[in-house]
Amino acid sequence: MKQPLNPYLVLAVAVILPGVGQVLNRQPVRGLIFVCFAILLGGFTLKTAAPDVSFVGKMAGGLFVWAMAILDAYKTARIRHAVWSHANAPR
Predict the structure, then answer these.
(1) Stretch 72-84: mean pLDDT, rounded?
(2) Residue 89 CB: number of other CB atoms within 10 A?
(3) CB of 5 within 8 A of CB of 21?
(4) pLDDT score of 70 more than 80
(5) How many helices (H) does the chain have, and how many strands (E)?
(6) How far apart are CA 60 and CA 18, in angstroms?
(7) Are 80 and 25 in contact (CB under 8 A)?
(8) What is the reported pTM?
């Protein structure tokens, strides 16, 4: 079994680029789904927010999905790394 990437590296990449953390975890379809939903919800909140709302408020839907993608990528990377470490521990 190949050693998985360091979970902190996956976390850093997921913070910078939405969906790429899932790609690094070998889940590209899941990453694409996160990106699509971030765009959809970001566009929805952009169109439905009041004109005097801040940029963060207008993009709240997309930012929420992005935050969930970050958590998902890091959690998956941590689990994969822990399973690999346990399987390859000296006995």
Answers:
(1) 97
(2) 7
(3) no
(4) yes
(5) 5, 0
(6) 15
(7) yes
(8) 0.91
